[in-house]
Write a structure and sequence with these properties.
It is a single chain. The protein is globular. The protein is an all-alpha fold and about 350 residues long. The chain has one domain. It starts with a helix and ends with a helix.
């Protein structure tokens, strides 16, 4: 992966973390969830194109192998966190709903527009349900987007934007979160934006941009990186006064691609922000992104329940720092002693299956 984009992942996973953390009378940092999910969906389209786009366009793409590799990375962790939430629930006297359990196991929960279904068990796993749909659609989207002329692609973008705006207007208020924020049918737009963005990134336009930015020097390139961060802070201000139906997804369709594009370009041009994102500590943390994402809400709930039961209130900041520290430690142990071995085991089994067939 492009190192600056890899480094960015830890920033947005922290924003998602903060969207799920509350203490006493504080409210959730809703912006973090909406912003973070948009980033990761777009980044997925961008990164998958970077890794496999050429294979798709040259008809060398093996979708079966691709899907297996992606599943081997996320599914064991998904099942482990699912079991953890079931055990926690049973201990609290809550038995799992069989229907919701079946949908979670098959990663189909986000297709049901009911919060009690798509947020059941480990609530963040709806993200994986969407991602699996995106993986299935990946080769088709790449072929359509890369083969389309600029004019036809522009018409397609305009048509999708117009149709989405109509949906935003007519959708009932109580369904906004389930359909606009969670539904894979609508969130695939973010994934497609990432693919379109990668088409721009590999174009001659980007080569021109890189040459110009290099001519400015690292200091000025760093200023451009700072500018897009300031832009995202500005989007936070706009977010506060925007109705939920307009802010949970489409608000990020323009600024997030700009952010990702500038960060990708800065990987080649350098600058202060790029140097920070490519530092060893940031890159190490970014490799734990999926583990942090999948376990952070469980850790937050456990830590808060323990502190409440023993009657200790150490305040918002210290409680948050405790949750962050435990989450990072648990994520490292999970990746080091569970995810790594299960992924290697499944890959060996698949290679053996391919050789015997």
């Amino acid at each position: 992966m492009i190192e600056t984009l890899q480094g960015c992942r830890i920033i947005f996973i922290f924003l998602i973390f903060m969207s799920h953390f509350t203490w006493t009378d504080t409210e959730e940092f809703c912006f973090g969830g909406d912003c973070g999910v948009s980033f990761f969906f777009m980044l997925s389209g961008f990164v998958l194109c970077h890794a496999h786009g050429k294979e798709v366009t040259e008809n060398r793409f093996n979708q079966k192998r691709f899907l297996f590799r992606q599943l081997s990375k996320i599914y064991p962790l998904h099942i482990a966190t699912l079991l953890a939430t079931i055990l926690i629930g049973v201990k609290a006297g809550i038995l799992p709903d069989i229907g919701n359990l079946a949908l979670n196991i098959t990663l189909l929960q986000s297709w049901i527009p009911k919060p009690e279904t798509h947020f059941a068990f480990n609530g963040v796993s709806w993200f994986l349900s969407d991602i699996m749909f995106f993986y299935l659609m990946f080769p088709l989207l790449v072929r359509c987007i890369t083969k389309a002329t600029i004019l036809n692609l522009s018409y397609g973008i305009a048509a999708v934007a117009a149709a989405y705006a109509c949906i935003q207007v007519i959708i009932p208020e109580q369904q906004v979160n389930s359909l606009l924020y969670v539904s894979p049918i609508l969130r695939i737009i973010d994934f497609a934006i990432g693919i379109i963005l990668y088409r721009l990134y590999v174009s001659d336009f980007t080569r021109t941009v890189v040459r110009k930015m290099k001519s400015y020097g690292k200091f000025r390139s760093g200023i451009i990186g700072c500018a897009v961060i300031i832009m995202m802070i500005g989007i936070y201000a706009v977010y506060q006064i925007t109705p939920q139906r307009w802010r949970c997804t489409s608000l990020f369709w323009l600024p997030m691609p700009i952010f990702i594009y500038v960060m990708a370009v800065s990987n080649e041009t350098g600058g202060l922000i790029a140097d920070i994102l490519k530092s060893k500590t940031v890159l190490w943390l970014s490799r734990l992104t999926m583990e942090i994402f999948m376990i952070h809400k469980i850790v937050i709930d456990i830590v808060k329940n323990i502190l409440m039961k023993i009657g200790i209130d150490v305040g918002y900041t210290l409680t948050c720092l405790i949750c962050v520290a435990i989450t990072i430690g648990a994520a490292y142990m999970t990746e080091r002693y569970f995810v790594r071995y299960t992924s290697l085991y499944l890959k060996r089994k698949y290679l053996s299956y391919e050789q015997n067939n």
